[in-house]
Structures are given as C-alpha cells and as structure tokens.
Amino acid sequence: MRDPAGFAVFYQQQFDTVLGFVTRRTDSPHLAADLTADIFLAALEQAHTYDARRGAPVAWLYGISRNVLAAHFRGSAREQRAAARIAGRRLLDDQDVSAIEGRIDAARDARQLAAQHAALSEPLRAVLDLVALDGLSVREAAQALGISAATARVRLHRARKALQRVDTLTTASLYAVSEARS
C-alpha cells in the first residue's frame, strides 16, 4: 500500500469494488467516475494511516469511500439549500442596485418630510395641504379656510420655512409646486 507500484496493484484489484459501491449510491455516470477518483485519491493520501492489524485493506477502502460520499452529499445538500434560498430571485446588476438605493433614499426623504409635515401646526398644515397637495391657489385655499388671502400667504410662507430644514431638494420641489399654483 505504501509504495506506488503496490498501490497501483491495489487500485486495479479494487477499482470495480469501489465503482460498484459508488454506482449503488448515485445515478450519474460522471459523478460516479469523479467520486471513484476522489476515493482513490483520498486512499493514496491516507495510505500511511493504513494499519493491517485493524482489518483488510478493502474494509479500510470502504471506510474512505463512505467518508468521501458523505462529504460529497453534505456539500450537495448545502448547495441545494442555498439554491432554494435564492430560487426565484434574480441577481442584481449595478443599475438595479442604484435604482433600489434611489428608492430607499426617496422613501427616507418622504418619511422625513411627512414627520416635518405632521409637526406643523394645524393652520399651517391646512394651507399647505390645500395649495401643495390639492392644487388650489392661495386665494382659493384662503376662501376654503375662511381666512384672508394675506393670512393664507403668511401661513404658507411659515409652512415652507419650517419644511426647509428637512431636505433642500424636497422642499424646493414642494415650493415650486405651491408657487406655481399661487
């Protein structure tokens, strides 16, 4: 077993035995060939551990065969679990990641803006909502609230000022929308 010529003889004698062991446990000819090669490679690497007092060489080879197959099937099970976890999910390219990051940032800005909006007093929020969300002019919003147009403009100005602390871009967009409707 320890010399190359002896191992070559052992390989020739045991090849059919190992191949039979493997083919009883797998239905793929390519996998059977690969596993058989792996078993003999492991046997060659572990030849120095063989102890004749512990049993026949074929029993030792069966032990190695069992270990190689067990390791293979454990690895296959891990691969299948990983594949199942990502099944149905497509991989993201850089453009997808950028788009998702943009949506996350926009959602964060929207949450901040909503929090600032909620923090406004009711009179400021009422004018702002009528102008920016409902599309009324300042004069129409004033009329709906039963206040003067001047009071509505002051409240709208204060609401815009309060929201400027949130995000310059978001506030600018909101300001532009409400300004266009004034």
Automatic annotation (TrEMBL):
InterPro entries: RNA_pol_sigma-70-like (IPR039425), RNA_pol_sigma-70_dom (IPR014284), RNA_pol_sigma70_r2 (IPR007627), RNA_pol_sigma70_r4_t2 (IPR013249), RNA_pol_sigma_r2 (IPR013325), RNA_pol_sigma_r3/r4-like (IPR013324), WH-like_DNA-bd_sf (IPR036388). The keyword Transcription applies. Residues 13-78 form the RNA polymerase sigma-70 region domain. Belongs to the sigma-70 factor family. ECF subfamily. NCBIfam families: sigma70-ECF (TIGR02937). It comes from Streptacidiphilus alkalitolerans. Keywords: DNA-binding, Sigma factor, Transcription, Transcription regulation. It comes from the Bacteria. Residues 111-163 form the RNA polymerase sigma factor 70 region 4 type domain. This is RNA polymerase sigma factor. CDD domains: Sigma70_r4.
